[in-house]
Write a structure and sequence with these properties.
conserved putative lor/sdh protein from methanococcus maripaludis s2 fold, alpha+beta, Elongation Factor Tu (Ef-tu), domain 3, 19 strands, single chain, elongated, three-stranded antiparallel sheet, about 25% helix, 3 helices
Length: about 375
């Protein structure tokens, strides 16, 4: 840095005469002259300089990442309009897959199922009676014919017609019974499915992370998430996938992230987690940090990563470079100490530095704003 002083003072001599005539009675009073000399002092204009140097120019970007579990189950009822009878878990409870979480009011569902099961069992028994009776009636028709001493072709034909009539009669009975059974079985399956839907069970092992407020006693709505279970055995920091950002991350990179709020505040080192499989999220694993074991789901921080880097190039501070339209320039001092414009070519704009690719040489000094 250097300073240049310019003298712009010009001595100015101002002579002011003041004549005052005092009249008193018949005579004149004396005249007093006053002379004021103003001498402007030297004014100094100081320029602050920046020197063109060689080094690394780095541009970075900051994105917010949030600590999330990799597996979660958003549990919901599959029925609408039923009252939530009981909730069996609380937030923070650990559950196993299949554990009962909540139930809806069954009303007469159990009794309806029992009635249908009894009806089906009775009709199944009736169907077996129909089949047995058909066999017995056919057997009796033939026994009567064969035991008769007047067997003839006409008699045999009459028995065959009798058997056909018996079969037709029992076929109608069997079809009616089977139709009733099929309908009742469908109703029973529907009721059992409804009863199953009235019980909400855990889809995975994990922690009950969130329960809908005032869930017990509320009215169910199909598909509405009422309980969330998370598997916090493996958590990662993640952020939305942005293609122009994703290209800067590679497996094995190390990135700095700062958490400013909460018990886990501090600086963490992250590394990309399976970047070749990223789709809607970019994920990062904690490599090191002050409270890695105490990180909680939902903790967020700002991660910094490099978007551009030029090594050992000429550079100036950003504040020394100016722009007019699409061209860049700097100010330099001429031999008389006057500020002059000099056009330059630039490359990468870093966080604080600008790469100089033309118009200046290493060691040149420019006026810095």
């Amino acid at each position: 840095m250097g300073k240049y002083k310019s003298l712009r003072g010009v001595k100015t001599l101002c002579i002011c005469s003041l004549c005052t005539i005092l009249l008193s009675g018949c005579g004149e009073g004396p005249v007093e002259d006053k002379t004021v000399v103003v001498d402007n002092s030297e004014k100094t204009v100081a320029f602050s300089y920046a020197t063109v140097e060689r080094g690394d120019v780095i541009a970075t970007k900051r994105i917010r990442c949030t600590y999330r579990q990799q597996s979660e189950a958003e549990q919901s009822f599959q029925l609408t309009g039923k009252i939530v009878d009981k909730v069996y878990v609380q937030e923070g409870d650990y559950v196993k897959k299949g554990d009962l979480l909540a139930t809806l009011t069954l009303n007469t569902l159990n009794r309806d199922i029992e009635d249908l099961e009894y009806k089906i069992e009775r009709n199944e028994l009736l169907l077996s009676y129909i089949e047995n009776n058909e066999v017995l009636d056919i057997q009796n028709a033939w026994v009567n014919y064969l035991s008769s001493p007047w067997q003839s072709a006409e008699g045999k034909k009459a028995v065959e017609e009798q058997v056909e009539s018996i079969q037709q009669r029992y076929r109608y009975q069997r079809e009616d019974c089977q139709d009733g059974l099929e309908l009742d079985r469908k109703k029973l399956a529907s009721l059992k499915q409804e009863k199953k839907y009235c019980s909400l069970t855990a889809e995975m092992d994990g922690l009950v992370y969130e329960i809908k407020r005032n869930l017990q006693g509320s009215t169910s709505k199909e598909g509405e998430t009422v309980i969330t279970i998370v598997d916090n055995s493996q958590c990662l920091f993640e952020t939305d996938y942005v293609e122009e950002d994703a290209v800067h991350f590679h497996e094995g990179d190390f990135l700095e992230m700062i958490v400013n709020i909460g018990n886990a505040a501090g600086t963490y080192i992250l590394t990309p987690y399976q970047p070749d499989q990223w789709t809607d999220k970019m994920q990062f694993k904690v490599y090191d940090g002050p409270y890695t074991s105490g990180l909680e789901v939902g903790t967020s921080g700002m991660m910094t990563f490099t978007t551009e880097k030029k090594e050992q190039v000429l550079f100036l501070p950003k504040k020394a470079v100016n722009k007019a339209d699409d061209k860049y320039y700097v100010y330099v001092a001429d031999e008389n100490g006057m500020r002059q414009v000099k056009w330059i070519e630039v490359g990468v704009f870093g966080d604080n530095l600008v790469e100089i690719v033309g118009g200046l040489e290493e060691g040149d000094k420019v006026i810095q704003r």
